[in-house]
Design goal:
By secondary structure, the chain is an alpha+beta fold. It is 31% helix and 18% strand. The structure holds zinc ion (ZN).
Length: 891
């Protein structure tokens, strides 16, 4: 057989761009020349890994479309749109036969993903005919620019190369590709790179990235456990349609290539097979690349397997195999002089990143000139090697996938808990809907009980929602709904240690150890809507929209912005109906307007027999602003996302507006979310550079300047800004601070009497859920809450001290201690004993509401959201008279 013709220009260029001979492998030092299929250079004008070349998303898509147009080995599917309207796609690559019969292969995988209809021999038969989909994902983190480039070359290679390894991959696997998981962020980052980073030569002059990637969040697109963001949701939909047994997520950070093997702490609820597969692949890659004498390929000592909230974990959560790389990226395409930071990347051991360890037999160099081509070589060699292994053992991959799916069902029949009941007789069904619809989004089956239920745990009414564990994603349901028992407090974890959905959303979810739950007759629930109810009679003197704690009450207020609404400050009776404090009182003539919206939002409106005799105040609409630093927009982004979802209008303001002063003239309420930085960082933000750092839209850089713009994003609001906030409060404004930002008012003298301390260095609390107790139940921020205590997510906020004489300012506190850690890990829980969780401090004409919690954490702790929305809806009545009622009358 004649040797395949190779692209000499490619080989020469790549050799030149690779900074040391050992930074390349025999798998990628060449590229076939094709007469029919366009190479990346044919379409993009450059080989992949060329210095100072990065491609915009549109160009990347253009390349894949050109490839698909010319090759029967490529097929593209559309999976939805991003916030900014870009199309998300998945590119499939395989042999002609595979691509022609793609849908048949999809169906085989669907059968293995839900093997309830398969006998063992039928399963064998399907496995013999099926091919694994091996999914590759890049560009989730926009600053990690290399993978989206590399995958184009890989795609071309997989389509054109006739080497035994590539032929085997093409014949035995279906390779699928996400070209950039955050398409909006890709373009914004590439713009920023060309504007500012194109001349960088060493990491010392590294400027960092733009203020935004996608519309709302940065790295947290990999922490979006509830799939709130559009690109993440689109990918999950695709995943559940195609069931790739392997999903491989490509990131950049540590040197030179880290291949994830799922170190401790590990989620014990996942199938043990997974924990064998992870090192199986990682070790094969490490040994192969080490054989190619590529230094710095390692495994084990970095990311753990605890939180199920990372995007790629959609795979392991659904009985697949999640794989992940970190390669050494430069945040662009420049060759930079890099020093390996001596700090360990691994929180669970103290080794240096360049030390020799059992899991790093050939360590990376301590100092190196590093190019994007080096990065491409490592990543592509690694990925080809992972594909090589999967292609050598396709039946094993498929059999593992089948067995993990089967075991999930069997475990649900065998091991308690056998299921979960969400009683339908809870007052707020909008939060139930939030939970159910997220479970449904995850592919978890939910049923509605067709009759009354009697279990060990008690009796539940007809219509209660049932999640049985004997289903393919029964393990995932358990992981999401159960309490997290952190296995070893001496281990650190990469993200949150707790996520228990019932606690996060303040929804009653009953875990059942009664196997009878599996036999409850149910009808399938596709989607759950909280049904609103409104009176038919339209001649009442007034109407009340009942406050059952739904955040939708805020949406209703803003939808009815022209309607005058009063808020009942105390509970009262109307005939047999109890109207809780916080309920909206509408006059008789606003019924027509309010009815449709109330019903649509799943709220309940009742006719009143008489005007309420309890104190009320007008639900005035505040002029609301959200403050963001330029250097920490992510946690602000989560708050913006929640405000947008609940249709709460606000201005997003930055230092430019704050420094102008006179904030009170424009706003009634300003929220300072957590900024992911210290209070000093909040005030002084990004250090000034030698030149102004503009984030503005120009004809050349059209993706910059979104969600705010500035001629110089550095420097922060400074003391001038801190003063402007103080003035705002003194002149009658309400300042609300969340999480770590709540150290700002105490430390910059806005709330002089409060001190903000920090826990000791022994304290370690990666996002556990802890108990909080309400001290002033009648305060308007607790409208809709009925219990004295509630679970809250620990937000890493300051340990506040309030002078004894002002103790009444404390609205909620942490009882502290190990007994009050409800889920996940808090080491040193005694340190938070009786610390204020929320404080309402009058200052001048206004007030400051300090949340040491974060009542708007990601799209997750819905149960706490109402406290923030209550503060906004009742902004000028936080010291209302109705609070003076005796506790006994409230409860
Ligand atoms: Zn990353």
């Amino acid at each position: 057989m004649q040797a395949q013709e190779m692209d000499a220009d490619f080989a020469k260029a790549v050799k030149e761009w690779t900074t040391k001979p050992e930074f390349i492998s025999p798998l990628v030092d060449h590229l076939p020349k094709s007469r029919s299929v366009p190479s990346p250079k044919d379409i993009l004008g450059h080989h992949i890994g060329a210095p100072k070349k990065l491609d915009y998303y549109e160009e990347i898509i253009r390349y894949y479309k050109a490839l698909a147009a010319k090759s029967p080995r490529v097929h593209i599917v559309d999976i939805g749109k991003t916030d900014e309207g870009r199309e998300s796609i998945v590119v499939f690559i395989g042999s002609e036969e595979t691509i022609q019969n793609l849908d048949t292969y999809r169906q085989y995988l669907a059968q293995l993903a839900d093997p309830r209809q398969l006998s063992e021999s039928q399963a064998r038969d399907v496995i013999a005919k099926a091919k694994p989909i091996y999914h590759l994902m890049s560009g989730l983190h926009s600053g990690e620019t290399g993978p989206s480039e590399m995958l184009m070359e890989l795609a071309y290679r997989l389509v054109t190369e006739d080497s035994p390894i590539v032929k085997s991959i093409r014949d035995h696997l279906i390779v699928s590709i996400t070209p950039a998981a955050d398409p909006d962020g890709r373009d914004r980052y590439v713009d920023w790179y060309f504007r500012y980073k194109i001349n960088e030569t060493s990491e010392e002059d590294n400027l960092g990235g733009p203020p935004y990637w996608g519309k709302y969040i940065f790295h947290d697109d990999n922490r979006d456990i509830n799939y709130s963001q559009l690109p993440m949701r689109n990918l999950l939909h695709w995943y559940l349609d195609w069931h790739p047994p392997i999903m491989h997520d490509l990131h950049e950070s540590v040197p030179f290539l880290y291949t994830f093997s799922g170190q401790a702490p590990q989620e014990p609820g996942l199938d043990p097979i997974l924990y064998g597969e992870l090192p199986w692949f990682a070790n094969f890659e490490m040994s192969q690349l080490t054989k190619y004498v590529m230094p710095g390929v390692w495994t084990h000592g970095y990311v753990d397997m605890w939180s199920p909230g990372y995007l790629g974990f959609m795979s392991s959560n659904h009985n697949g195999l999640l794989r992940m790389y970190e390669t050494f990226g430069n945040g662009g395409a420049n060759t930079l002089h890099r020093k390996i930071t001596p700090e360990t990347p691994n929180p669970n051991n103290s080794s240096r990143a360049d030390s020799r360890e059992w899991y790093r037999p050939l360590p990376p160099y301590a100092e190196v000139d590093w190019s994007i081509r080096n990065n491409t070589n490592y990543m592509e060699t690694g990925v080809l090697t992972g594909l090589q292994l999967a292609a050598a053992f396709p039946e094993v991959v498929l059999d593992n996938f089948y067995k993990k799916s089967l075991h999930s069902i069997e475990s649900g029949k065998r091991d308690a808990p056998f299921g979960y009941v969400i009683p339908i007789n809870q007052t707020d069904l909008t939060r139930v809907a939030f939970v159910i619809n997220i479970l449904r989004l995850q592919g978890i089956e939910v049923g509605r009980a067709t009759g009354e239920i009697k279990l060990k745990e008690g009796a539940f009414p007809t219509g209660s929602l049932i999640i049985k564990r004997n289903q393919p994603y029964g393990r995932l349901a358990k992981i999401l709904l159960e309490k997290q028992n952190y296995p070893d407090p001496s281990l650190r974890t990469y993200d949150d240690s707790a996520w228990t959905m019932g606690m996060m959303t303040h929804t009653k979810i009953v875990e059942s150890s009664d196997a009878a739950v599996l036999d409850i007759p149910v009808e399938k629930v596709e989607h759950f809507d909280a049904k609103g109810s409104v009176p038919t009679n339209s001649s009442a003197v007034a109407y009340a929209v009942i406050d059952s704690g739904s955040v939708n009450l805020a949406t209703l207020r803003f939808r009815l912005k022209g309607v005058s609404i009063r808020i009942a400050e105390q509970m009262f009776q109307s005939g047999p109906v109890t109207i809780p404090a916080g309920s909206f009182i509408l006059s008789s003539d606003s019924l027509a307007k309010a009815k449709t919206e109330t019903e649509a939002l799943g709220l309940t409106m009742v006719a009143l027999t008489a005007q309420p005799a309890v104190p009320m105040h007008d639900a005035d609409l505040p002029r609301l602003a959200v403050y963001s630093t330029w250097g920490g927009t992510q946690d602000v982004g989560w708050v913006r996302y929640a405000f947008d979802q609940f249709e709460t209008p606000y201005d997003l303001i930055y230092k430019e507006r704050v420094k102008q002063g006179n904030l009170r003239a424009a706003y009634d309420v300003i929220v300072i979310p957590n900024q992911g930085r210290t209070t000093k960082g909040l005030v002084f933000d990004l250090a000034p550079k030698s030149k102004p750092l503009a984030y503005t839209k120009t004809s050349e850089f059209k993706y910059l300047g979104d969600y705010g713009s500035s001629d110089d994003i550095s420097g922060g609001m400074g003391l001038e800004g801190a003063l402007a906030f103080r003035k705002f409060v003194e002149e009658g404004g309400l300042l609300i601070t969340l999480g770590e930002a709540s150290a700002f008012p105490p430390e910059y003298g806005i709330t002089r009497s409060i001190e903000a301390g920090r826990p000791s260095s022994q304290f370690y609390a990666p996002g556990p859920i802890v108990q909080a107790e309400i001290l002033r139940a009648t305060h308007p921020i607790f409208y809709g809450y009925t219990e004295k205590s509630m679970p809250v997510r620990w937000a890493g906020g300051p340990l506040l001290t309030v002078p004894r004489v002002d103790r009444k300012q404390v609205l909620m506190q942490f009882p502290g201690g190990d007994d009050n850690v409800l889920s996940g890990l808090m080491k040193g829980a005694a340190e938070i004993k009786n610390r204020p969780a929320i404080v309402d401090v009058p200052v001048g004409q206004g007030r400051v509401l300090l949340f040491a919690t974060n009542p708007c954490y990601r799209w997750q702790n819905l149960g706490e959201f109402r406290m923030l929305f209550n503060a906004i809806l009742n902004y000028d009545d936080l010291n209302s008279k109705g609070q003076e009622v005796k506790e006994s009358r409230i409860r």
